[in-house]
Amino acid sequence: MSVKYSNKINKVRTFALSLVFVGFGVMYIGLFFRETAWLMGLFMILGMLSVGLSTVVYFWIGMLSTKTVQVICPNCEKPTKLLGRVDACMHCKEPLTLDKNLEGKEFDERYNSKKYREPSQ
Ligand SMILES: [Zn+2]
């Protein structure tokens, strides 16, 4: 398989973490505009919004985590959390499924989608 799949919870965590860095970066850029108060203020507000949004995303992933199923990965034997019908192991990225019908089939994130269609290619 050429495409790398990653665990959804890890993906969202990475996104939230990057929002924090973007937020601080934007606030830092704001410091270069110290002479222009409104421009500096604008960057500060944008930065704070980004950091605030990451808090929301962290909160959301916390809520999502309660809906996940914890399983022991058959490949690396570590506990991992699954979200949706198919997800990848947090540690070794082994594709895992909760649906017996999908066992043995090629991993496809489209199985999570309700409007799943046959692959076109
Ligand atoms: Zn694993």
UniProtKB/TrEMBL annotation:
The keyword Acyltransferase does not apply. Pfam families: DUF2614. The keyword Isomerase does not apply. It is found in: Cell membrane. Its main location: membrane. It comes from Pontibacillus halophilus JSM 076056 = DSM 19796. The chain crosses the membrane at residues 12-31, 37-61. One of its GO terms (cellular component) is plasma membrane. HAMAP family: UPF0295. This is UPF0295 protein N781_11585. NCBIfam families: PRK02935.1. Keywords: Cell membrane, Membrane, Transmembrane, Transmembrane helix. Belongs to the UPF0295 family. It is a multi-pass membrane protein.
